[in-house]
Amino acid sequence: xxxxxxxxxxxxGVSFPRQQARTRRFSLGTPRNFTVSPDxxxxxxxxxxxxxxxxxxxxxxxxxxxxxxxxxxxxxxLGGGEEELPDEERARRERSxxxxxxxxxxxxxxxxxxxxxxxxxxxxxxxxxxGQEAGGAAAGDLVELPAPSGVVDPRPDPQGRSVAFLSGPxxxxxxxSGDEPCFAVAEEHDPEGGGTITWGAAEFIAAEEMGRxxxxxxSPDGRSLLAARVDNDxxxxxxxxxPSQPAHPPRAHRYPxxxxxxxxxxxxLLEPVPGGGRRRPVSWDARRFPYLVAVHWSRWxxxxxxVEQRDHKQCAVLAVDLDGERExxxxxxxxxxxxxxxVDWPAGVPAWLESGELLWAVADAGTSxxxxxxxxxxxxxxxxxxxTSSGRSVVxxxxxxxxxxxxxxxxxxxxxxxxxEVGGVSSATGxxxxxxVVSRSLSWPGARTSVQVxxxxxxxxxxxxxxxxxxxxxxFLSVGPRQLRTGVVFPAGHRGGxxxxxxxxxGGPGAQxxxxxxxxxxEAQWLADQGxxxxxxxxRGTPGxxxxxxxxxxxxxxxxxxEDQVEALYGAAEAFPELDLARVGIRGxxxxxxxxxLAVLARPDVFHAAVAGAPVTDWRWYDTYYTERFLGRPQDxxxxxxxxxxxxxxxxxxxxxxxxxxxxxxxxxAVHTLVLSGALLAAGRPHSVLPLPAVTHVASxxxxxxxxxxxxxxxxxxxxxxxxxxx
Length: 727
What we know:
This protein is an alpha+beta fold. The protein is built from 12 helices and 46 strands.
């Protein structure tokens, strides 16, 4: 086997695995989480001080002067002390895959002259306007507001008079003047200490699968709130325990496994005042539509709810009647949508526009298209990915080529226009004259972020991320009858000769990997530089190819995904004869781990070794919202779950399989790997298991992330050292 060239892909004293781990996959130092003020004067964002510093800070870019200002630093705010995370904040970061520390989230009032954030479980309020006194805080001056410990998800009302936030199971409010005590808006104390009812928080599947990270919403006038009440009592309790800390008690998780009960979620209209306030339930047919997927409340219309059936075949957009004379806030149906497999929509809809028209998305002509009122405003073939801003106009990401995503804008007066022409992966924020554009390309490392003002040159924001020590070079292909998008990466300086292959897919719903973004190919290039050809392919079920392509995995998450990896492998080998099809490995994490294990179990004639990280091995043990969308409920059709499970295939293992799992993973629990390992052992099938103590679904610890990559390389070097002959 070809080994790594001396120093290839690395600079003196810096290895790529260590650099990637230290920089949190090169995310540190990159501007993110943008808010543009309505007057176009300010852009608020987060950024850590350096590419290896995880202590994220709050920044403001002043548009008139073109200067950046740090308004709150994580370490300075705490006086140099260590950050202490409440359990609820730790869970929020896990659900959002947050890899940094410090100020990792913030929220502004409507004028974007102030921001609220939580740090170390305390509540902070800071002015953002340059050189002006505003509200309870001068620009750049921090005020700690009264709050109980464990503050999570603070959000000011649109007028900036108060901040609502979570603490434990309750929803609280603190006045921004800072001279009044905070008070509970809604909380319920469990006399038995079970803590099953929460107010204002997103339940597990909302945060993990629906894309709804929050559970309360202010009215435009700042006088009332919509808040979710979540009763987790029906949900089963699963436990995680870190065996490396035997003195620590196990941690309980309310986890709704497929086919079991979900949390009971209701929505309430609250008019909070200290010591009480009016509280009204919001009414809809929750038996028919138990899932509260999204809430939108703006000054351009009544509150909108997006609700969904449990079988995912129907959803409805509802408008809330705010008539104050009623004891119940009723709802009326704005629209309903149905699908024979599952309904779907891009993030950012539904929403009211300033014109009073509804923004929605439909599947039409094989395309995810935006609809404003009764008018389709995007053409067939332009796949809408996400709406990033809406109100005066609509700003969104879309693609007519799956590998390239550009930012677009639509308005009633200006029609449809392209914001970016990068040929990579771009997005934009801000629906007025000022926009923040983030672009990634194959032509430069990392993200380029700029503030764009109509009629002027883009103004770059500083990116302090480290430059990777590898320089990826990708060969893009469209292979087979389905024109599967595939990327092939060779070792740097490769001059010919057969090489073993490592396929590195995700391969499942919700994630696309073959895109024209340099940052997506760094690890693939480093792995290739160790003496492999790396092949990455997006098969059926992955985004970017339209609704029909995604729905081809309905009731079968296994075979279409696996068949497409085989097709992509053979297509790549036809284009590049250097691929040694007698030495083929496959690696992946999460769904990719499932696919990697499936590959060696079901197609050992093609795949000769696999690394399966955090694999789902039996879909009965994954959550309701994701799993039932594709497979239905296990009690309704057990055969579907049996066909998609890895456990019945365990006796067939004939190739090297390396299983890796974080022992405190609360998304794909370690039971998946442990039970598969037990089934393999019972069948007398040798395999390897690497348990990761104190690691969740994301292996973010530097030592673990670095050495996990090195362990996989060693595994493939040994497993693929000799060609596997037919038979």
